[in-house]
Amino acid sequence: MEKQDFDQMNQTVISEFRSTGGRAGGVFEGKPLILLHHVGAKSGIERISPLVPLLDDGRVFVFASKGGSDKNPDWYGNLVAQPNVTVELGTETFGAIARTLEGDERDAVYAKQVEAEPQFGDYQRKTSRTIPVVELVRTVE
User: Residue 128 contacts by C-beta under 8 Å, 6 or more apart in sequence?
Assistant: First the structure.
Protein backbone atom coordinates (compact mmCIF):
# COMPACT_ATOMS: atom_id res chain seq x y z
CA MET A 1 0.00 0.00 0.00
CA GLU A 2 1.35 3.43 -0.95
CA LYS A 3 2.05 5.81 1.95
CA GLN A 4 -0.53 8.30 0.64
CA ASP A 5 -3.21 5.57 0.49
CA PHE A 6 -2.26 4.39 3.99
CA ASP A 7 -2.43 7.95 5.36
CA GLN A 8 -5.88 8.43 3.77
CA MET A 9 -7.11 5.14 5.25
CA ASN A 10 -5.88 6.23 8.69
CA GLN A 11 -7.66 9.59 8.35
CA THR A 12 -10.90 7.79 7.49
CA VAL A 13 -10.52 5.48 10.53
CA ILE A 14 -9.71 8.44 12.82
CA SER A 15 -12.79 10.37 11.65
CA GLU A 16 -15.03 7.32 12.05
CA PHE A 17 -13.58 6.59 15.53
CA ARG A 18 -14.31 10.13 16.69
CA SER A 19 -17.81 10.28 15.20
CA THR A 20 -18.89 6.96 16.78
CA GLY A 21 -17.34 7.29 20.24
CA GLY A 22 -14.49 4.90 19.59
CA ARG A 23 -15.56 2.39 16.94
CA ALA A 24 -14.68 1.89 13.29
CA GLY A 25 -15.68 -0.45 10.50
CA GLY A 26 -13.69 -2.28 7.86
CA VAL A 27 -10.71 -4.20 9.26
CA PHE A 28 -11.48 -2.70 12.69
CA GLU A 29 -15.13 -3.84 12.79
CA GLY A 30 -15.94 -5.33 16.21
CA LYS A 31 -12.40 -4.87 17.53
CA PRO A 32 -11.19 -2.62 20.33
CA LEU A 33 -9.48 0.45 18.94
CA ILE A 34 -7.40 3.33 20.25
CA LEU A 35 -5.92 6.41 18.65
CA LEU A 36 -2.30 6.80 19.72
CA HIS A 37 -0.87 10.34 19.47
CA HIS A 38 2.92 10.33 19.20
CA VAL A 39 5.66 12.69 18.04
CA GLY A 40 7.82 11.85 15.03
CA ALA A 41 11.35 11.03 16.20
CA LYS A 42 12.90 12.77 13.18
CA SER A 43 10.20 15.23 12.11
CA GLY A 44 8.92 16.40 15.50
CA ILE A 45 5.42 16.32 13.97
CA GLU A 46 2.52 14.88 15.99
CA ARG A 47 1.13 11.74 14.39
CA ILE A 48 -1.98 9.69 15.17
CA SER A 49 -2.03 5.92 14.69
CA PRO A 50 -5.21 3.82 15.00
CA LEU A 51 -4.22 0.58 16.77
CA VAL A 52 -5.93 -2.57 18.03
CA PRO A 53 -4.94 -2.77 21.71
CA LEU A 54 -5.25 -5.37 24.40
CA LEU A 55 -7.33 -3.87 27.21
CA ASP A 56 -6.55 -5.95 30.29
CA ASP A 57 -7.78 -5.05 33.77
CA GLY A 58 -7.48 -1.30 33.22
CA ARG A 59 -4.16 -1.60 31.40
CA VAL A 60 -3.62 -0.75 27.72
CA PHE A 61 -1.12 -2.63 25.56
CA VAL A 62 -0.23 -2.13 21.89
CA PHE A 63 1.78 -4.32 19.54
CA ALA A 64 4.34 -3.17 16.97
CA SER A 65 3.37 -5.94 14.56
CA LYS A 66 3.15 -4.04 11.26
CA GLY A 67 1.27 -7.05 9.93
CA GLY A 68 4.28 -9.31 10.43
CA SER A 69 6.72 -7.10 8.50
CA ASP A 70 10.43 -7.55 9.17
CA LYS A 71 10.61 -3.90 10.26
CA ASN A 72 8.97 -2.22 13.24
CA PRO A 73 6.29 0.35 12.42
CA ASP A 74 7.44 3.98 12.49
CA TRP A 75 5.19 4.71 15.47
CA TYR A 76 7.21 2.30 17.61
CA GLY A 77 10.47 4.16 16.94
CA ASN A 78 8.66 7.36 17.84
CA LEU A 79 7.59 5.90 21.21
CA VAL A 80 11.13 4.76 21.99
CA ALA A 81 12.46 8.26 21.21
CA GLN A 82 9.61 10.12 22.94
CA PRO A 83 7.56 7.92 25.31
CA ASN A 84 5.13 10.66 26.41
CA VAL A 85 1.95 10.04 24.40
CA THR A 86 -1.76 10.78 24.35
CA VAL A 87 -4.35 8.02 23.99
CA GLU A 88 -7.95 8.24 22.78
CA LEU A 89 -9.98 5.29 24.06
CA GLY A 90 -13.70 5.50 23.34
CA THR A 91 -14.68 9.03 24.33
CA GLU A 92 -11.83 9.36 26.87
CA THR A 93 -8.48 11.05 26.18
CA PHE A 94 -5.55 10.64 28.56
CA GLY A 95 -1.80 11.07 28.79
CA ALA A 96 0.44 8.02 29.07
CA ILE A 97 4.04 6.88 29.14
CA ALA A 98 5.01 4.15 26.67
CA ARG A 99 6.89 1.28 28.30
CA THR A 100 8.26 -1.59 26.19
CA LEU A 101 7.81 -4.96 27.88
CA GLU A 102 10.62 -7.52 27.98
CA GLY A 103 11.06 -11.26 28.49
CA ASP A 104 8.35 -13.28 30.24
CA GLU A 105 6.14 -10.23 30.79
CA ARG A 106 6.19 -9.46 27.05
CA ASP A 107 5.51 -13.09 26.14
CA ALA A 108 2.55 -13.40 28.53
CA VAL A 109 0.88 -10.24 27.24
CA TYR A 110 1.51 -11.20 23.59
CA ALA A 111 -0.06 -14.62 24.24
CA LYS A 112 -3.18 -12.90 25.64
CA GLN A 113 -3.39 -10.77 22.50
CA VAL A 114 -3.06 -13.84 20.25
CA GLU A 115 -5.91 -15.45 22.20
CA ALA A 116 -8.09 -12.34 21.72
CA GLU A 117 -6.96 -11.53 18.15
CA PRO A 118 -5.52 -14.69 16.48
CA GLN A 119 -4.04 -12.78 13.54
CA PHE A 120 -1.31 -11.53 15.91
CA GLY A 121 -0.01 -15.12 16.05
CA ASP A 122 0.21 -15.07 12.25
CA TYR A 123 2.11 -11.76 12.39
CA GLN A 124 4.75 -13.21 14.75
CA ARG A 125 5.16 -16.33 12.59
CA LYS A 126 5.73 -14.18 9.47
CA THR A 127 8.79 -12.40 10.87
CA SER A 128 12.06 -13.33 12.54
CA ARG A 129 11.97 -10.25 14.81
CA THR A 130 10.28 -10.37 18.19
CA ILE A 131 7.26 -8.08 17.90
CA PRO A 132 7.53 -5.38 20.57
CA VAL A 133 4.75 -5.08 23.16
CA VAL A 134 4.22 -1.64 24.69
CA GLU A 135 2.18 -0.77 27.74
CA LEU A 136 0.63 2.71 27.68
CA VAL A 137 0.81 3.59 31.38
CA ARG A 138 -1.65 6.32 32.32
CA THR A 139 -0.09 9.42 33.81
CA VAL A 140 -1.64 11.11 36.82
CA GLU A 141 -3.47 14.24 35.73
Answer: 70
In the DSSP assignment, the letter for residue 42 is T
Q: Which one-letter amino acid corresponds to residue 41? A: A
Cα gap 139→94, rounded to integer Å = 8
Extract the runs of DSSP E, i.e. beta strands, from 64-129.
Answer: 84-89, 92-100
What letter does residue 119 receive in the DSSP assignment?
A: H
Q: What is the pLDDT of residues 70-97, one digit of tens each?
A: 999 999 999 999 999 999 999 999 999 9
Dist CA 105 CA 89 (whole Å): 23
Rounded to two decimals, the pTM is: 0.92
3-state secondary structure of 39: strand
- Which pLDDT tens digit goes with each residue over 92-139? 999 999 999 999 999 999 999 999 999 999 999 999 999 999 999 999
